[in-house]
Specification:
This protein has 226 residues and is α/β, with parallel strands linked by helices. It has ten helices and six strands. It has a six-stranded parallel sheet, sandwiched between helices. Helix 3 crosses helix 4. The chain is globular, with a radius of gyration of 17 Å. It comes from Sphingomonas palmae.
């Protein structure tokens, strides 16, 4: 018997599945303090969420040398790990309606993946904390791929799930997610509850914009206007 084609919905994590900006900002502030440089504003830090660490630091400090970017990225990891070990991480709540949206889509045969600038360890912690680890058939992180918007994560997710671009959608809150989707030739769905505004999502190539998880199913079936 032939298997039905797999329809794959790939989600970003930070700003799409969970609201993690407070912890990201605090860790980045600590990393810049470690090199005795004034940290960027929290608005600026929110703007780079989704990029891999070195690329994120480079975007925040474009005039600095590559060694500086690498040092701050390592200090960020250390700061985040220390915050977790000391029990100082703020809650990273799921966005309202996520679980219900996953239930509806799963009932229709969708498979789920994640493509994130987080590390394997960071993503595993988030999914385990929220009881979501068994929901996803493919997990792609910055540990094994170039930074967004390179399409490597989506290509690997499709290969692992056994599907093709015309059966795949990328769901994310940043222009980097939209640009990655376009580069991989998959449908791009932008969500407005994260860290980039609607104008940036559209500039990144979003095919459709969703303002709440309750509308995601309709967007994926083409019932929500762009």
């Amino acid at each position: 018997m032939l298997r039905a084609p797999v329809r794959l919905a790939i989600f970003d994590c930070d700003g799409t599945l969970v609201d993690s900006h407070a912890n990201i900002c605090r860790a980045m502030e600590a990393a810049f303090a470690g090199v005795r440089v004034e940290a960027p504003s929290r608005e600026a830090i929110r703007g780079i969420v989704g990029l891999s660490l070195v690329e994120a630091v480079a975007a925040l400090a474009p005039d600095a040398e590559a060694d500086f970017h690498s040092r701050v990225a390592e200090d960020y990891k250390t700061a985040f790990q220390r915050m977790r070990a000391d029990g100082l991480l703020d809650a990273e709540p799921l966005y309202d309606g996520l679980v219900e949206a996953l239930d509806v889509l799963a009932d229709e045969g969708w498979a789920f993946g994640v493509a994130t600038g987080k590390s394997d360890r960071g993503l595993a912690h988030v999914l385990a904390h929220h009881g979501l680890a068994d929901r996803f058939v493919t997990l792609q992180t910055a540990d094994r791929h170039p930074s967004k918007p390179h399409p490597s994560m989506i290509h690997a997710a499709m290969e692992q799930a056994g599907t093709d671009p015309h059966l795949t959608v990328m769901i994310g809150d940043t222009s980097y997610d939209m640009e990655m989707a376009r580069a991989a030739n998959v449908r791009a769905i932008g969500v407005t509850w994260g860290y980039h505004d609607e104008a940036l999502l559209r500039a990144g190539g979003a095919d459709v914009i969703v303002r709440r998880y309750a509308d995601l199913h309709r967007a994926m079936t083409g019932e929500v206007a762009a």
